[in-house]
Amino acid sequence: MKKNGSNSQNASAGASGEPAAGTGNQSVLTISNNLEQTLSDIKQELGSSPDLKIRKVKLGLAEPVWAAAVFIDGLVNSVAVDEFVVGALIENTAFAAEEMPREPQERLQLILGRALELGETSIKDNWNDMMLSLLSGNTIILLDGCSKAIEGGTKGGEWRTVAEPSSQIVIRGPKDSFVESIITNTALIRRRIKSPKLWVEFMKFGTVTNTDVALVYMTDRVDQKVLDQVKMRLEKIDIEAVLESSYIEQLIQDKVFTPFPTVFNTERPDVAAANLLEGRIVLIVDGTPFVLIMPTVLAQFLQSTDDYSLRFDIATLMRLVRYVSFIILLLGPSVFIALTTFHYEMVPTPMLISLLAQRENVPFPAAIEAIIMEAAFEILREAGIRMPRAVGQTVSVVGALILGTAVVEAGIITPVMVIVVALTGIASFAIPSYNLAVAGRIVRFGFMIAASMFGFYGITLGLIVLIAHVNSLQSFGTPYLAPFSPFSVRGQKDTVLRVPMFLVNLRPNKLGHMNDNDKSGKDKGTSDSGKDGQTGA
């Protein structure tokens, strides 16, 4: 695969290559035979940046030859540069006068083969490739009289250490999470899947940023048609900058105009590993701890890693709570609006009398009440997220209490409406996936409007439209509502319910296709869902 002028390389069992430069910053400069001229061109290309470091070294005794180690301070491993690059060039006995070759190319090969003590070295003969390697954290070694450069693998710098996930908390299970380093993230996956069948393809995206992206999959489990479709969509990406995985997600998703996410994301390595074992594809973007997983189904967003750490009966109960919470999130305010606006006969008489007494001095209809409170709740939620962590949660809780009490005492909102909106907000926090919770919050306003106009008839019409829309969605060829539509009996073992582990096959069906070990012909074309989207069988 080629993208933005870069060659992706397959890497089995941990091997990976360095792609070539992107097309957005192509330069007409070349690597000169004159060392000083090349160094001057590098300085000019980078604007004489203060973090550009150049270390000159004299090689040989009788006829000394000047060499230079060029690197970007902060992007390299300083110890590797000092000891294994500069130190190796100075101390290596191969550069004695009687052993130093006269031909520049032979000198280059001597340095490459006998002097450097690095695990990863290569020769660069293109200016753009050399500059990209320099800006990626490698050290460039230039030799006077030679028009080629040596790339030394010295990537390093400061990275956030592996810590506990911030958004996908579990009661029992691994506590590590992905970080912003793509090499660290691929290593976290390989620690869990020690198989040569785990393949990694590196590529670069962004004509300006040249962001590293890793495509990870199990070659013996992935659906080749899905893999080809993912690669085809990636090849079509033409963008200047990729600063987060959402940039790529928005460019490869199946449908743009839908609130429902069709690409799953996670910051947990165990979730990524589980999905790889099911035949899914993981996309890791350098600079972000959130990886993309594809294809996906709706049930995947309502499952948690805890479902596989706890007993099956407890896990099933928690899943049922999440499904009920999602229904409350979608329909809670709209059902209350329909009951209090159009369908009084469905409310018990004592409760109806209480509701009418509360509404006696309220100037707004139920629909306006609900919209005002929901908007206020969304503002408080957003404020709590954006404020400093130490005070954000406190402000949200205190603000909600004060605001709820004030609007009731002022006679603007009824107490029951405050309870309904609060229950809806709490239900949204029970959804494991933030993206699906946001989708539910958006769709909720549509149901509220339909209920205020037509009551339960409007809610019914909205449900028909919603189900038809969700049923039309696909994720890289996989039906979004699988295994509900198309219905799969085997898929129900690990969707809403979670059967005991001994009833679940260790190797599930491939997404959209039957597993090689399953020739029964049943449930073909469906997918089962499991650990945060893990398929069960």
UniProtKB/TrEMBL annotation:
Question: GO cellular-component terms in the record?
Answer: membrane
Q: Which UniProt keywords apply?
A: Membrane, Transmembrane, Transmembrane helix
One GO biological-process annotation of the entry reads: spore germination
Q: Transmembrane stretches, by residue range?
A: 281-302, 323-342, 392-413, 419-438, 445-468
Q: Which domain of life is it from?
A: Bacteria
Report biased composition (Low complexity) as residue ranges: 1-24
Biased composition range(s): Basic and acidic residues: 513-531
Does this UniProt record's set of keywords contain Zinc-finger?
Answer: no
Which stretches does the entry tag as region Disordered? 1-26, 510-537
Tell me the protein family, please: Belongs to the GerABKA family.
The name on file for this protein is Spore germination protein
